[in-house]
Amino acid sequence: MAQHKKEAFGPKEQNLATFAKAISHPARIAILSQLAKRNECICGELVDVLPLAQSTVSQHLKELKTAGLIDGTIDGPRSCYCINWKAFEKFYNDFSSLFTKLKEANAKCC
Amino acid sequence: MAQHKKEAFGPKEQNLATFAKAISHPARIAILSQLAKRNECICGELVDVLPLAQSTVSQHLKELKTAGLIDGTIDGPRSCYCINWKAFEKFYNDFSSLFTKLKEANAKCC
DNA sequence: TTGCTTAATCGTTTTTATACGATGAATATA
DNA sequence: TATATTCATCGTATAAAAACGATTAAGCAA
């Protein structure tokens, strides 16, 4: 009895939740920060910076890519990643509207 | 070999990740939306609205409360919840700065 | 071709999350 | 007092996440 019921919710909530999950691990936030800091495509330098094994970093990169937050291209034997800004902006806007909506509920209760 | 290494990252990344995880499930986003919509404290009406069992809803509420996003008070045999706007604003600001930082990395690569 | 580098994937283990029914504690109400 | 209501907690089961070593595949260099 643990089949997930995420499909039982609306697409808006599902999308936001999926995005939130993508950035719900410090390693993935660190990856995004690195990609932003270097302002360029990065491949395995992330492994040197992060306190994680190569396979684990690759796994996190895959999740970010699946979520659409980063793009990856093959550059010879390496992989080059960068932020997918378009997707990011979409999610940021969705988040902003959620927060705005919640802000309107700033009532005195409890 | 699966001990989590979240402590190996900075507090900023950890905080953001914790918040993101709190809203990484559609049920919890739905709960927050309901709390916002009703603009008042809500107890078990959530169970009627959500496609989940009572114990499951209670569990999600607990997680939101642990993350500090909602407050709960006991009202007789019921429990009354509302959004903790202060905590929410803090996290929203943290998120905004992350997004702003990433936006500056909007370079042409890949 | 052979060997090296790079990174994705596989297989496995441990931990955490999700979900539910059942139980229990507390407050109302009859 | 007895009973019903409300909700948190417990116990449990299953699924997913997190992490690593080992292997594999692909490109490059000698």
Folded structure, characterized:
The structure is a homodimer of 110-residue chains. Chain A is 56% helix and 11% strand. By secondary structure, the first copy, chain A, is mostly helical. Chain A has a domain at 24-98: Winged helix-like DNA-binding domain superfamily/Winged helix DNA-binding domain (Arc Repressor Mutant, subunit A, Orthogonal Bundle), CATH 1.10.10.10. In chain A, a hairpin with a 2-residue loop joins strand 1 and strand 2. The radius of gyration of chain A is 17 Å and the shape is globular. Chain A starts with 10 loop residues before the first helix and ends in a 7-residue tail after the last helix. The interface between A and B is large, with 53 and 53 residues. Chain A binds a DNA duplex (30 and 30 nucleotides) through residues 1-6, 25, 27, 43-44, 47, 52-63, 74, 76-79.
Describe how the helices and strands are arranged.
The structure is a homodimer of 110-residue chains.
Chain A: H1 11-22, H2 26-38, H3 45-49, H4 54-66, E1 70-75, E2 78-83, H5 85-103
Antiparallel strand pairs in A: 1-2
Chain A binds a DNA duplex (30 and 30 nucleotides) through residues 1-6, 25, 27, 43-44, 47, 52-63, 74, 76-79.
